[in-house]
Amino acid sequence: MEYNNQLPPITMPEYGRNIQQMVAHCKSLEDREERNRCARTIIRAMEAIVPEKSTALDKETIYWDHLAIMADFELDVDYPAGTITREEITLKTDKPEYPGHYIRYRYYGHLLVEMIHKVCQMEVGPERSAAEYFMAMQMKRDYMTWNQETVEDIKIFKDLFELSDGQILLTPENCKLNINPNTLDRPGKLQKPINSKKAKKK
């Protein structure tokens, strides 16, 4: 009898071991068309297991992102445009340093990026999980502050995955980021006069 602790770890536990095994089988197929058919079958199974609540038109992309991650980016199939790649989540070390700190997403700020790197050095456990949640919340707050619009959690999770070099993986199923837009101090936000009565007097 096999026990779970004797089996290889699952990359994305929310989909279960069967999906991970289907991905491994898909990678072993030699015919590209057969691999494509198998990949589409896996995507439909993933949608059934973990329905994406987002109403975005490209919501299916997240499943292809997850498929690529579970396959360790070694599954050669026809991914849709916009699917995440290994290059997008790998921090390139050969880029020259520029004054002002190079940041892929400037609205997050270099201090937060440095904090993400420190969190990646923490041991897996409750403290690290809490820190990862804090990072995601702060990223969503920063995004909404500077872009002055709402943002799907999955966008934040994808950015956090990239900025952490693939070491922090949050999903809508295990993390919810609830932020009231009215609590954000956005640039250009009008401030109420200190004394409104005096302001009305001529």
From TrEMBL:
Classification via InterPro entries: DUF4290 (IPR025632)
A Pfam family it matches: DUF4290
Stretches the record annotates as Disordered: 180-202
Name by which UniProt lists this protein: DUF4290 domain-containing protein
